[in-house]
Design brief:
By secondary structure, the protein is mainly beta. The chain has one domain: Roll (Ubiquitin-like (UB roll)), CATH 3.10.20. The chain is built from one helix and seven strands; from the N terminus they run βββαββββ. A five-stranded mixed sheet has the order 2-1-7-4-5, covered by helices on one side. A two-stranded antiparallel sheet has the order 3-6. A hairpin with a 2-residue loop joins strand 1 and strand 2.
């Protein structure tokens, strides 16, 4: 059984560690929106803003933008990058 995800049937909420801009952030595993991930990261000291563009890293050099209202499953080890919308890097 994968304990890194929220088990809604049993009401268990399990914390997991993700990475946002190379910094460890602790969230409850399970479903999150792009906005909720950025908010938790900001609360835990990651130097980003809510209007930054969030991307999920699938493999080295392969990312996908996560829309603010998009719901994704987050588990331990999930990595994100957040950059200012006007960043051309």
């Amino acid at each position: 059984m994968d304990h890194s995800r929220t088990n809604t049937d049993e009401g268990q909420r399990v914390a997991c560690e993700i990475r946002v801009n190379e910094q460890t952030v602790t969230v409850v595993g399970g479903h999150h929106t792009g906005t909720s991930i950025k908010r938790v990261a900001i609360e835990q000291g990651v130097a980003i803003a809510e209007d930054f563009v969030l991307s999920i890293e699938h493999e080295p050099r392969r990312t996908r933008i996560v829309a603010d209202e998009e719901v994704i499953v987050v588990e331990t080890g999930t990595c994100f990058t957040a950059v200012a919308d006007d960043d051309n890097s």
